[in-house]
Amino acid sequence: MTNITLVPKPDMDMRRAFACTMLLAAMSPLSASSKLYIVYMGGKKHDDPSMVTESHHDVLTSVFGSKDEAMKSIVYSYRHGFSGFAAMLTESQAATLAKCSDVVSVRPNIYHEAHTTRSWDFLGLDYDQPREDSGLLQKAKYGEDVIIGVIDSAAGIWPESRSFDDSGYGPVPARWKGTCQAGQQFDATSCNRKIIGARWFSDDMSDEELKAEYMSPRDLSGHGTHVASTIAGGQVSNVSYGGLAAGVARGGAPRARLAIYKVLWGPRGSGSHAGVLAALDHAIDDGVDVLSLSLGQAGSELFETLHAVERGISVVFSAGNGGPVPQTAWNAVPWVTTVAASTIDRTFPTLISLGNKQMLMGQSLHNNASMNISDFKALVYTRSCSMQSLASSNITGKIVLCYAPAEAAITPPRLALPIVINRTMEAGAKGLIFAQYDANILDILTMCKGNMACVVVDFEIAHTILTYLDKTK
Fold first, then answer.
1. Which CATH architecture has domain 35-108?
2. How many other β-carbons are positioned within 10 Å of the β-carbon of residue 310?
3. Of residues 321, 342, 298, 338, the one with CA closest to residue 412
4. Quick one: pLDDT at residue 357?
């Protein structure tokens, strides 16, 4: 029987101490008065892990004055390879703990950066560059008064989002000729000096397709709000992903104005060419400077965008979410800008500990402490994790390695992973190691969370795990 466990990446010294514990990040959103600290207490003084954890509770209780509050504050208890814990503490509580005789060190946690708090800085559009070294964003005045029209899947908007606060904005540019079209839970006051216009187009949709929808520019699925804030959202502090990767979220042009055109409807975002053309037509007349369209396979059909380009409007399409396999880019016509996803200098490291004490690196977005596994689990290799391969193996209570390069070339990881997760959960697996081309494809990491331990690795790491499995019977 082969045993493995998954742990998040500690520092180099701590990594050597981890051998058998599975800990997947579980951090509460940071408040103004507390943040996550790592408390290191050296070698463990008890062989029984529960006693080590109890000692952590005792130390924290001495600071909080209440064991209940102490237990609520703790995020991790490091109790197998060494002794220590991670807990939500104020600065003064951390200072008090640092004076305890059993404590070796107390230091703030280092946060990995999330999807909305890093991308634009990575592209060189740093918000706070010094005046003497101003970059493109500063020279463009942060997009000041540029009007960006957003035609997007379920492309409504949730105007209450802090990303669309209009504090500090001047009057709406005089050249703007658009309107704020009212509707269900969306009236004229839903627009402001940031969201300067909004329209919705549903005449091309059937009653069935419009069920449960907001008959207004209001966003049902959240995707329209996400896209609009990514493009031009203002700065919002203390944003995190379940407590992970805290930072400041903002759009690429945070001082730009937004005009919203809702053309696709329902949770899946369905609509017709007719509605998209109606939105494009209005947007050209309304006076937008830029048009953003996140529409699958739309560019080759929207020759009408040539009229927008002729008016001096920059038209930007998404290249889709397919890949990384050949011929999966959409909307590649020569008169528009087509933007594809790329790599970024950000990871969410998670260590995989093999039974031979070898440590390998994958990635995961787990932030749920209930997913912790405190002992080794058997490893099962089921190739592509098809229904047939899973049915032929007993994976109950075990960790499954899903590694099939040939099948991965046919089915993009973002389509395969949710199916694999559901299959392995239904079969009773305790965890999943999912192999794909590149473990840095962040959009699939968002799927690797929830009710089962899950980590994404590249093919090289998967091959190493498989070799270990073959040699360890």
1. 2-Layer Sandwich (3.30)
2. 10
3. 321
4. 86
Q: Into which CATH architecture does domain 349-471 fall?
A: 3-Layer(bba) Sandwich (3.50)
For residue 469, is it left (φ>0), alpha (ψ between -120 and 50) or beta? alpha
User: Dihedral through CA 158, CA 160, CA 164, CA 167, nearest 10?
Assistant: 160
Q: Where are the domains of the chain?
A: 35-108, 113-127+139-339, 349-471
Residue for token pair 């494809």: 441
pLDDT (tens digit, 9 = 90+) per residue, 379-430? 999 989 999 889 899 999 999 999 988 887 777 777 888 899 999 999 999 9
Q: By C-alpha distance, which of 159, 313, 145 is closest to 228?
A: 159
Mean pLDDT of 343-353: 75
Burial of 260 (0-12, 13-18, 19+ CB in 10 A): buried
pLDDT value at position 219? 86
Q: What is the 3-state secondary structure (H, E, C) of the chain?
A: CCEEEEEECCCHHHHHHCCCCECCCCCCCCCCCCEEEEEECCCCCCCCHHHHHHHHHHHHHHHHCCHHHHHHHEEEEECCCCCEEEEEECHHHHHHHHCCCCCCEEEECCCCCCCCCCHHHHCCCCCCCCHHHCCHHHHCHHHCCCEEEEEECCCCECCCCHHHCCCCCCCCCCCCCCCECCECCECHHHCCCCEEEEEECCCCCCCCCCCCCCCCCECCCCHHHHHHHHHHCCCEEEEEECCEEEEEECCCCCCCEEEEEECCECCCCECCHHHHHHHHHHHHHHCCCEEEEECCCCCCCCCCHHHHHHCCCEEEEECCCCCCCCCCCCCCCCCCEEECCCCCCCCCEEEEEECCCCEEEEECCCCCHHHCECCCEEEEECCCCCHHHHHCCCCCCCEEEECCHHHHCCCCHHHHHHHHHHHHHHCCCCEEEEEECCCCCHHHHCCCCCCCEEEEEEHHHHHHHHHHHHHCC
**Rounded CA gap, 179 and 285, in Å?**
11
Query: What's the topology of domain 113-127+139-339?
Result: Rossmann fold (3.40.50)
Structural tokens at position 256: 């730009």
Q: Give CA–CA dist 409/323, Å, rounded.
A: 9
Beta-strand relationship, 244-249 and 257-262: unpaired
Sequence-distant (6+) residues with CB within 8 A of 426 are none
Residue where the block lists tokens 């590694």 = 403
Has this prediction a pTM greater than 0.70?
Answer: no
| pLDDT, tens digit, 9 for 90 and up, residues 47-70 | 898 998 999 999 999 888 889 999
- For the stretch 425-450, pLDDT in tens is 999 999 999 998 765 566 677 777 66
d(CA 313, CA 294): 16
